[in-house]
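QA checklist item 7 of 12: single-chain prediction sanity check.
[x] sequence parsed
[x] length recorded as 49
[x] structure emitted
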Amino acid sequence: MHTIEFTDEELRLVLSAVRSYLDDFGHEEADVLRRLKELLRKLEAAPAA
């Protein structure tokens, strides 16, 4: 497991980037979509600094 610390601004940027990346995928990349959604859930659940 890795730990990365983000400032609030960096976390907003990462969330935005992952959401944009997620929007670019179609139905044929179901495994990628699932993993990106899992990552978003983790990032969104991260406690604020």
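[x] summary fact logged: Residues 8-45 form one domain.
[ ] second reviewer sign-off
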